[in-house]
Structures are given as structure tokens and as C-alpha cells.
Write a structure and sequence with these properties.
The complex is a heterodimer of chains A (258) and B (181). Chain A has 258 residues and is mainly α. Chain A is built from seven helices and no strands. Helices cover 64% and strands 0% of the residues of chain A. Chain B has one domain. Helix content of chain B is 90%, strand content 0%. Chain B contains four helices and no strands. Classes of the chains: A mainly alpha (258), B mainly alpha (181). Chains A and B meet through helix 2, helix 3, helix 4 and helix 5 of A and helix 2 and helix 3 of B.
Amino acid sequence: MATEAHGSESSLVFHPMDQFKVTPLFGDGPVHWYTITNVTLWMAIAVVGVILLLVVGSRGRAVVPSKGQSIAELTYGFVYKMLEEVTGKDAVKYFPYVMTLFIFIVFSNMLGLLPLSFTTTSHIAVTGVLAVLVFLFVTILGFVKNGSKFLALFWVSSAPMAVRPLLAVIELISYFVRPVSHSIRLAGNMMAGHAVIKVFAGFAPIILFSGIGVVVTPVSILAITGMYALEILVAFIQAYVFTILTCVYLKDALHPAH
Amino acid sequence: MATQTHGAEVVDAAHGAAEAGMPQLDFATFPNQIFWLLVTLVVIYFVLSKIALPRISAVLAERSGTIMNDIAAAEELKLKAKEAEAAYDAALAEAKAQAQQIAGETRAAIQADLDAATAKADAEISAKAAESAKAIDEIRAGAVDSVKEVAKETAKELVAALGTTADARTVTAAVTARMKG
């Protein structure tokens, strides 16, 4: 899009990161916390998508489901099974939280693949809050459920006594790094793929300016197509990874023993 | 929210840095994103926990219940079918036995009738035969008497023809002796 905007200039213009700008939806003022921005718009679209899929899709309540209801049930079963298998049967009462995370991330990732859209999950502010919410929830739940026994998570009782203090330090660090890796993995994946697609998109119109475009333009378009396919996969896989890691952390909170 | 209070300069500086690099590190937009994210999460959470998830879980439970019921009903019907088959087999066996019995009885009755008729016929035949034998004996006895008579007469005639007479008693004795011989 950047190139189109600057089409009158007789050179290529790359703005691969422009797509991630947070801008007010109405007017051009500063971005306050309450300002209605493109973030608001695309999160609202995600909410509408969730409602369409899970509420409107399941409104028939049919024993023999329609297509929409089947997809809603598949989504439900996918996350429910993941939680049950990874975390255990006693974790199903946290299913609504896990489902909220998964459905929000998967919708944001997929909506971000629409041309001209804004990917909310490509922002570290968003994924960071998600990861910190999981981190706080899991840590508090761990102490509430197990009391001081939750600290056994850091005390590797299967290791020799001599190395246990060292392991405890490593475990402690890795515990606190969790939200960082948890959030950067998601935002980084989303951002990188979108930026790469944008760079190829910047190269695509070169045929208008230079003879070398005869080669570069088709290659760029093919690359965009290939990246787009990959990004669809990544959009789903990253939502899955975020959710399954949440399940793993939840398991640590419920059963801290190694 | 923190960024807001810092004043326009800091915000502008952040904007400047972000424009050069990543909009993701434009901290001025963080409060906005975080606020709308929390709103979104709360909305999704309530939509899911109040409407979507209970509904889908109810549908899934209902489906598994229906399937269980259908399987149970099928099992019951299968049992009924087996019972019906057993009853049919029993009825068939009984009918066969009855048929055999009736056939046996009928055969026995026919046999009895036949035997009675045969016995009656035999009796009649033997009676007739006895009567006939008696008649034949009478006839034979009559014939022997006649032969004696004729023989006596003939013997008397013969004696007379030879010129002598013989009394009847001698002739009779001679004839009788001859007849025995």
C-alpha cells in the first residue's frame, strides 16, 4: 500500500512497518487510552467473528449439526481436549479462560491476514498483556492451590542434592522468562511474516520503473503468495502454541511436583 | 496511562523513534492497546462463559446422550428380536410335534380300523370256509353213503346175475370191508 500511496514518485518506497501503526480511526489527534483506533476496530471485528462462530453458529443447538455448528463444536472440542490432555481433568474449570485466549488470538491472527487489516497480535503491548495475565494467573493459582509447596516447582528433587540449588536458580530464571518468550514468540511471528510480505509487495511494482522488473515482479508476486500460505499456517500454529503453553503453565500451577 | 501524563514532548519523541523503527515500540500507543485489549477479552470471556460454551457443551452432552439412548434402544430391540425368534422357534417346534402326534394318532387309528376290518374279514372268511368245509364233508358223506348204496345194489345184482342169492347182511359187510380197504 505504501508504494501505491507514493506511486507518483519514480522510485520504490518501502514502508513495511507502516501496517503496524496505531492510528485514531476518526480525526488525526493524539492516541489517548480511550481513543477509538484501528486497534479498537480490529478487536471489535474479532469479537464479532467470535460471536458469529460460537454463538450464531451454534444457535441451532441441533443434535445433527449444521456446518457452522460443526465448526463451533470442533473449535470447542479442540481447545477442550488440549486442556484436558495437557493439564488434566481437574483443569477443565479453567476452560473458559483458555478458550478466551485461544479464540481471541486465532481470530486476531487470521483477521490480520486480510489485506489492509491491522494485526493486533503483532504488537508486543497486546501479547505482553496476554502473557502477563497468564503468568499472574498461573502464579497466584499455584500458591493458592499448593501454598509453599508450589516452590517445589523450582526444587528438582530428582537431581543430586549438590546441583539442586544451581538448578533452582535456573528454574527460577526460566520461570520469570516465560512471559517474555510467551509474548515475543507470538508478536514476533506475526510481525515478521507481515513485514516480509510487505517487503515483497514493495518490490512487486518495480516493473513500472525498470526493465529488471520483468524478473523481479513475478518472483515477488509468487513470494507473496507463498508467504501468505505460510502465514495462514503460522497464524493458526502460533495461536495453538500460545494456548498449549498456557495449558503447560497451568499444569505446573496445579501439579508443581516434578 | 503513564505516557499520557508525561506530556507531549515525550509522546512526540516516542512517536519519532517509532516512525524510524517499529511501531510496536511506540509506548505512547500502549495504554490505548492495553485498554481495548482488556475490553475485548472481557467481552469475549462473557460471551463465551455465558452463552457460547454452555450452549455447545449442552449440545455435545445431548448428542452423546442421544447416541447412548439409541445404542441402548438398539440393544433392547436386538434382545426383543432374539426373544421373538426364540418364541417363533418354540412355536414351530410345538407345531411340528403336534403335527407328528396328530399324524401318529391318525396312523394308529387307521391301523386299528384296518386291523379290525382285517380281523372281521378273516373271521368271516374262516366262518365261510368252515361252512364250506362242512358242506363239503356233508356232500362227501352223502357221496360215500350213495356209493355204499350203489355198491350194495350192484353187488346184489351181480350175485343174482351169477345165479345165487346172498342175504343183504353179507353183501353189506363185504361192501363195507371193500370200501375200507
